[in-house]
Amino acid sequence: MDASHSDVLILGGGVVGLSCALHLLKGGASVRVLEQGTPGCGSSHGNCGTITPSHAAPLAMPGMLGVALRSMLRADAPLYLNPRFDGPRLRWLLGFARHCNWRDFQHAAQARSAILQRSRRLLGDLIRDEQLDCEFVESDGLLYVYRSTSKLADDERHHAELLDRFGVPVERLSGEQVEAMEPALKPGVKGGLFHPEDARLRPDRYVAELARLVRERGGVIEIGARVEGFKTNEHRIDQVNTTRGDFTGDRVLMALGAWSPLLGQRLGLRLPMQPGKGYSLTYTRPTRVPRRALVLREAAVCVTTWESGFRLGSTMEFSGYAEGLNRTRLDALRRGAAEGLREPEGPQLQEEWWGWRPMSVDEVPIIGPSTRWSNLHLATGHGMLGVSMSAATGELVAAQLSGKTPAFDPAPYAPARFGL
User: Fold this and answer.
1) Ramachandran area for residue 52 (φ above 0: left; ψ -120 to 50: alpha; else beta)
2) Coil, helix or strand for 289?
3) Is the pLDDT of residue 373 over 90?
4) Domains of the chain, residue spans
5) Strand, coil or helix: what is 46?
6) What is the full DSSP assignment across 293-305?
7) Running DSSP on this structure, what letter comes out for residue 408?
8) How many C-beta atoms lie closer than 10 Å to residue 280's C-beta?
9) Predicted local distance difference test score (pLDDT) of residue 76
């Protein structure tokens, strides 16, 4: 037997690729994961680790394009669009603008909610059943904190009422109730929205545990295997060429996150995605630490506490594939935290991080078979919700590749909607 051949060859060893690998292995397939760095070294590493069925609402809604365009004048805005000309980014922005209507908002929210709710249950079961060491906490929920009554009113209308329709619990709280729940907050809170079914974990540890499970179940993870090209034959991918050698698979799964459009071009696929750059700051724990994960809504800063540390994160920057830290964005995280928390930073800064989230133009992940290549499957475009959606993505991909009936409707995520 050819040692370089697998039933399924997975391109990408982040949280989505590894989740797919684990579900495929459970179904009896042989799996090889090709990762250009180390497992979870991309956006799976430095995100805030919140598991959020509450995040059904997409960014795209009427008025959001104006917010994005105005952000070009403020490099520290929570949503920042770099004014530098970039053809692919401009095409993506025009497509995004077309989705800023209530019909597409509702369609995207429904698709996101279905996969988020399914994934939340699967992820909790996996962590408990396998006793994964990733600082998972599911009892404390996620709290949105507001210092502006107008922002609270907007979110009650476009966020909380949406969750009500989808059956996702959300509790409306007064400012006094929020401050009583969270003594770590500065006074002046106007209200809050509490999401009791949201959870949190340490994402780098979770991905490390997934990689361990994949290996224990016979999967192979090739690290430092950057994909350099493909050998194709009409409508089939015959071989994947990497810096670690050439590999073949009966099926090829593209789970490359924000790198998917770059590799997709080599296969003649134009994936309607852009990298949405996020940042985080990780500290040792402050003395007065929040009891639960928080989102400081006006500043759009997510605050996550673990036994092993404390992280400030979020922001969305569209600067194409520009690498490196942007100090203006990191300073905005610090200021936002300082406005809301009594102790906004820990005693020791452990890591300053940036990473690209794979933002699809309609903010719905791209999961399913390619219409162009007979043995290519895609699992990408999860935006800011890769960890939250990963378990259900793995289940869906495994069902599709084995010919089984998926647990939820796969149609909204199909690559065919973009002619892929």
Assistant:
1) beta
2) coil
3) yes
4) 5-418
5) helix
6) EEEETTTTEEEEE
7) S
8) 24
9) 75
Is pLDDT of 3 > 70? no
Please, what is the Cα angle at 406 between 400 and 407, to 5 degrees?
155
Between 70 and 312, name the one with better pLDDT: 312
How far apart, in whole angstroms, are the C-alpha atoms of residue 21 and residue 9?
9
Calpha distance 101→105 (Å, rounded): 6
**Both tokens of residue 330?**
């990191």
Would the CA dihedral through 67, 73, 79, 82 be positive or negative?
Answer: positive
pLDDT in tens, 266-275: 999 999 999 9
- When the candidates are 3.40.50.720, 1.10.287.3510, 3.40.1190.10, 3.50.50.60, the CATH number that belongs to 5-418 is 3.50.50.60
- Tokens found for residue 340: 């809301």
Q: Which amino acid is at 289?
A: V
pLDDT digits (tens, 9 = 90+) for 58-89: 989 988 777 777 777 677 777 788 888 888 88
- Furthest CA-CA distance within the chain: 67
Residues in the chain: 420
* Residues 4, 24: Cα–Cα separation, whole Å: 18
In terms of Cα–Cα distance, which of 58, 22, 136, 38 is closest to 393? Answer: 22
The C-alpha torsion from 202 through 205 and 210 to 213, rounded to 10°, is: -130
Residue 71 identity (one-letter amino acid): S
For 9-46, what is each residue's pLDDT tens digit? Answer: 999 999 999 999 999 999 999 999 999 998 988 888 88
> What are 151's two structure tokens?
């922002």
Q: Which residues of 100-114 are buried (b: 16+ CB within 10 A; e: fewer)?
A: beeebbebbbbbbbb
Look up tokens 């459970």; give the residue: 26
Q: Which of 198, 31, 211 is nearest to 119 (CA)?
A: 198
Tokens of 235: 């409508």
Q: What are residue 367's DSSP bridge partners?
A: 379
